[in-house]
Write a structure and sequence with these properties.
Blueprint lengths: L1 H23 L2 H9 L10 H25 L5 E5 L5 E5 L4 H50 L9 H53 L8 H15 L12
Antiparallel strand pairs: 1-2
């Protein structure tokens, strides 16, 4: 009962002070507050500052309650007055749960931001390494093509010559291998064609009556027979009349 009485007494004192300050304001000051734009700076008068704090605090807590009810949002407001008095509102039954949720969300955001920054730094480092490698490769390629050799020492020139010899040897070996593979393919094709030709000739000799059905075999058979059976002779002098 004593605690409740003290709370009611405190609220009554704030209400009385508010009424006194409002009554003390002149009509001209009320007109300026109503029509003019309020300057965002510290109120020098302690009584006016306390009254403004009470008004704004009540309105802020009311808006927080409306926001939580209308939008089904989890809202928590914590206010400390100039004298260190605590005012709070929470749509949750336990304000500590909302605070723990905020801390977890803030920590997750900080962790994600730190990981992203580290990943960006890693990508930048990889980009710089790749640029250096590309530059070295371009310089090496120009030297192999005979350019930019003025700054090379004797040892570097010797290394470039040895590398070109090894490259030329590899190219020639690969060229010879390709030629050999092609020759083997052609030889295999030649053997296959000879075997097919032999089979066709054998088939034509075995079945002469089927030569008409196989023009190719018949032509081959006729040319073979003509080349073996035709008699040739040589005659010198004028043709007989």
């Amino acid at each position: 009962m004593q605690v409740a009485f003290l709370a009611v007494h405190t609220l009554l004192e704030e209400e009385i002070n508010l009424q006194l300050v409002e009554a003390a304001q002149s009509p001209w000051e009320n007109l300026v507050m109503a029509r003019g734009k309020i300057q965002m700076r510290r109120i020098e008068n302690a009584t006016s500052r306390q009254v403004t704090f009470s008004k704004r605090r009540t309105g802020l807590l009311k808006k927080a309650h409306e926001l939580s009810v209308l939008c089904d949002a989890e809202v928590t407001v914590i206010i400390f007055s100039q004298k260190g008095r605590l005012y709070e509102f929470s749509s949750n039954s336990e304000i500590r749960k909302t605070i723990d949720r905020y801390r977890k969300s803030a920590n997750d955001a900080d962790t994600y931001q730190a990981k992203m920054e580290q990943h960006i730094l890693h990508l930048k480092q990889e980009t710089m390494d790749m640029e250096r490698k590309i530059e070295l490769l371009e310089v090496s390629l120009r030297k192999l093509s005979g350019q930019c050799l003025a700054s090379c020492s004797i040892d570097e020139i010797q290394m470039i010559g040895d590398q070109l010899k090894r490259s030329l040897s590899s190219v020639r070996a690969r060229k010879a291998q390709l030629f050999n593979d092609r020759i083997q393919q052609l030889q295999a094709k030649e053997r296959s064609l000879k075997e097919e030709n032999a089979k066709l000739l054998a088939k034509c000799h075995a079945n002469p009556w089927q030569s008409a059905a196989h023009p190719r075999a018949a032509a081959i058979h006729s040319r073979s027979s003509w080349s073996t059976d035709v008699e040739t002779g040589l005659f010198i002098g004028l043709p007989e009349s």
